[in-house]
Structure formats: C-alpha cells, structure tokens
Design goal:
This protein has 13 helices and 17 strands. It has helices at residues 37-40, 49-61, 72-84, 96-113, 134-140, 143-146, 164-170, 194-207, 228-232, 277-290, 295-316, 339-348, 371-401, and strands at 16-20, 23-26, 31-34, 89-93, 121-125, 156-159, 175-180, 183-184, 190-191, 210-214, 238-241, 252-256, 321-327, 330-335, 351-352, 354-356, 360-363. Helix 2 (49-61) runs antiparallel to helix 10, helix 3 (72-84) runs parallel beside helix 10 (277-290) and helix 11 packs parallel to helix 13 (371-401).
C-alpha cells in the first residue's frame, strides 16, 4: 500500500510545492500555468499578498472560538456580502456542499414556517451538480455519484434545462422551491438562458415557491459580475457561495432574504467550524480585492479576449475542439475525442485544466490573469491540439506501412 489516503480520487502523479499568481511550481521544479485554479477556487491566484497577510495576521490572534460567541470578522463579512447582493442574512459554512445543504434547509423551512410543512420537494435540473453530501447528490440525481450509497434521499424532482413547460408539469402540491446554477460547471459548462431564468422567477412568484441559486462556482466574479444572478438579470431568494469567496481557504456561505430565512431560528442549523475568524479574515481579504474599482472590468475584458482567441483555436483544430462555451472566465471546450485526451495533452504543455461533464475540458483561470498569460495559455493549447492530431495520425501511418 503506497498511500494511506482513501483511494477516492484518480490522482495525477504530480505534486506542487509553491505557487505565485497564475503559476504553480511542481516538486521537480517544473512550472505550470494554472488554468484549473483548484477547480475554480483560486480566484486571486496563488499566494496573493493581501490574502496571505490577512490570514497570517488573524492566525496570530485567534483562529477559532465557535459560534457560541460573537465573531466580529464574520459580522463584517456578512454585512459586506449583503450590501453587494440581494440578501439580508448570511450563514457561514466550510464548503460548497455545506452551503447548499443550508440552501435546501432554508427552502424547506420557509414553507413549514408559512404553514405548509407538506411542501418540501425541490425541483432541480438535468446535468446539475450541487455537492457530494447525500442530500446534494440526491438533488443532482447523477446515477454515477449515487451508486452504492443506499436509498436516495427523498425530496427532489428534476426537469430538463431550458424547458419551462416541463418545469410546470414537474411542480406539484409538495414543491417548495426551484434550485439552479447560473452556469452548470460540473455538468459541462452549460449556460442558463436568461429568458429561462426569468421564467423560473415568474413561476416561483406565481406559485409561492422560493428560487434558489447554486453560485458555489459562479459567485465572486467568475462570470464578470460579483454574482452570476446579476449576469442573468434575475434575483433569487436564497443562494449558496463557496470556492472563490475564500480564494483557496475553505469557506462556504448561504445567503437569503429575511423573508426566505424567517423559519431559521436558534437551533435550526449550525456548524462548529463555520464562520471561524480565520475563514472570515480570508473572505474579507478577498472582498477587499474583488470590490476594487476596475476589477470586474478586468475580468470581463480578459473573458472576451480569451473566448476570441479560443474561437481561433477551435477553427484551427476542428477535429479536437467541437465548441467553445461558457461565461466570463468559466470556459468549456467541448471535445471531439475524450476530454481526458485534451487535458493530458495540455498538462504535457504545462497548462492545467479540469474535466467536466458532457465531454468538456474546463478552463477556469484566476480572475487576475493577464492578456499575456492568456496568450501563453492559448499558444500551449494550440500545441496540445497539434500533438493530439499527430498522435491520431500515427496509427494510420503505421497501418498503411504494414
């Protein structure tokens, strides 16, 4: 047994010892351009000086006290998140899955507090991903993720993305709310049409349902706005955040209106580590950076440049890349061959990407990426595609020679 780690991951034989900005240095000294960002987590790249300083200074004072006491750093972060969003209240957790568990509980408790405890079911969408807990797995209904874990938790129904008539048919007397991602990241970087999101909002208003957004991956600037719902022009009642909010430090957050959260009284939810001073220092430091004048404009400019350059690569290598999709700096390359083929070829060029559903390779660079770094990444992608094309031709040449 080479490792005592539970073999739950198919890990690449590659380890990193340090990072700076969009670059990672492996233990063998090789440098990689990081367009995986720890699966869209490292929004400010690696070793961002302001985040490092904030965490270091807080660690010297106090890291954890528990939620038995007031945590001023958390009160400040909650106030700032509410000022930036639709929300009135925030609950802090440690991960995206925990944030989404909070979202699910708020949606159910809202209906119970309004005298409708029978309304507990939540409608989700095909291709969604909401986390790895038993409840969030049940919400997404991905058979591969659920296999072997016993009876699936009750309370979730599903409809095809974009089909509002199917949504209407799926809503019943037990439906409490609708849960959707502005962009399905794990599901293949599938963008929700704004018209569909607006139709969902109208439907929720009409039928007394809560509209919940999973912004674990899209929140904190990933799409070029602070939150993905702002890109869609639709306001939810409840929203889950994580990933970019800590820029590498584990943190989750559940945001809600006062009306949506009115059933969440003392004792209804909790977390030992959630909202600890160290995590709150990280979150506040991230907001310091992403709320600076010009930050979101930079993200939008880099996103436009990146998609333009990727369109050129697609045209140059149509046998490798079928489609460029996504919003902001959450980009997906729909592959002609297995997506692992492209991800491996990119890694050989010292460019890191991450897989997604629907045979997509995801490119999610840090939001601080520059035009020069995008050009560098595109050049590496070009070489990777050319290498794939050569490798595919080799067996044909060998067969012809035989």
């Amino acid at each position: 047994m080479d490792s005592h780690l539970l073999p739950a991951y198919a890990r690449v034989d590659l380890a990193f010892e340090r990072g700076e900005g969009v670059w990672l240095t492996a233990t063998n000294g090789d440098r990689y351009l990081d367009f995986a960002s720890g699966v869209a987590v490292n929004a400010l790249g690696h070793s961002h000086p302001h985040v490092v300083e904030a965490i270091t200074e807080q660690a010297k004072r106090v890291m954890h006290v528990s939620n038995l006491y007031r945590i001023p750093e958390g009160e400040r972060l909650a106030k700032r998140l509410c000022a930036l969003s639709f929300a009135d209240v925030v609950f802090f957790a440690n991960s995206g899955a925990e944030a989404m568990e909070g979202v699910i509980k708020i949606v159910r408790k809202y209906q119970s507090a309004n005298g409708h405890p029978e309304r507990y079911r939540i409608l989700t969408f095909e291709g969604s991903f909401h986390g790895r807990t038993l409840a969030t797995l049940a919400a997404a209904k991905n058979k591969k993720h659920l296999d072997g874990f016993g009876p699936i938790m009750d309370g979730f129904d599903q409809a095809p993305m974009g089909d509002i008539e199917a949504v209407k048919r799926a809503i019943g007397p037990e439906t409490a709310g609708i849960l959707i991602e502005p962009v399905q990241g794990e599901g293949g970087v599938r963008v929700v049409p704004p018209s569909f999101a607006k139709a969902l909002r109208a439907l929720c208003d009409e039928r007394g349902l809560l509209l919940a957004f999973d912004e674990v991956q899209t929140g904190i600037g990933r799409l070029g706005e602070m939150f993905g719902y702002q890109k869609l022009g639709v306001t939810p009642d409840v929203m889950g955040l994580a990933k970019g909010l800590g820029a590498g430090f584990p943190i989750g957050a559940c945001l809600a209106t006062a009306e949506a959260a009115k059933g969440m009284t003392p004792g209804t939810h909790g977390s030992t580590f959630g909202g600890n001073p160290l995590a709150m220092a990280a979150g506040n430091a991230v907001l310091d950076v992403v709320t600076k004048r010009g930050f979101m404009e930079h993200v939008r400019e880099m996103a436009l440049l990146f998609k333009q350059r990727l369109a050129e690569i697609k045209d140059r290598h149509p046998s490798v890349i079928a489609e460029v999709r996504g919003e902001g700096l959450l980009i997906g390359l729909k592959c002609q061959g297995p997506n692992g083929e492209l991800i491996d070829a990119l890694r050989a060029e010292k460019l890191l990407a991450v897989g997604a559903g629907d045979n997509v390779a995801r490119l999610v660079p840090p939001l601080i990426v520059t035009d020069a770094e995008i050009s560098d990444a595109v050049a590496r992608l070009d070489r990777a595609c050319a290498a794939i094309e050569r490798n595919r031709q080799e067996p044909r040449k060998q067969g012809a020679a035989e």
